[in-house]
């Protein structure tokens, strides 16, 4: 499928401080045409016709009324995080747009870290390390 035929997905950026991670962008590019916010803002009229989805990574881009009004073909907002507190779900649904997220993406890692911290605290591992290996 040619890149022009792929559905357009708006992302804040690729790489950098707040952009979609490079390896994730490579995966997305197999199925979508990624359009950065910069590209969109430079040519809103043309790009707005191509964008069917917004990929929210680390709460960016911000989804507000102005953005939704400028994307007449928007069908879905894919949020890469667990929660959707940063999204106004009622306003988004008024535009007929669906919202997805990844509710269990970090559940196991969070539980593992919680257990590790509790065990380290109960066994006083950090204190023991400092006492036996000063300066570490």
TrEMBL record:
Gene3D superfamilies: NAD(P)-binding Rossmann-like Domain (3.40.50.720). GO terms for cellular component: cytosol. InterPro entries: D-isomer_2-hydroxyacid_DH (IPR050223), D-isomer_2_OHA_DH_cat_dom (IPR006139). Pfam families: 2-Hacid_dh (PF00389). Keywords: Oxidoreductase. Transmembrane segments: none annotated. One of its GO terms (molecular function) is glyoxylate reductase (NADPH) activity. Residues 23-114 form the D-isomer specific 2-hydroxyacid dehydrogenase catalytic domain. This is HPPR reductase. It comes from Nyctiprogne leucopyga.
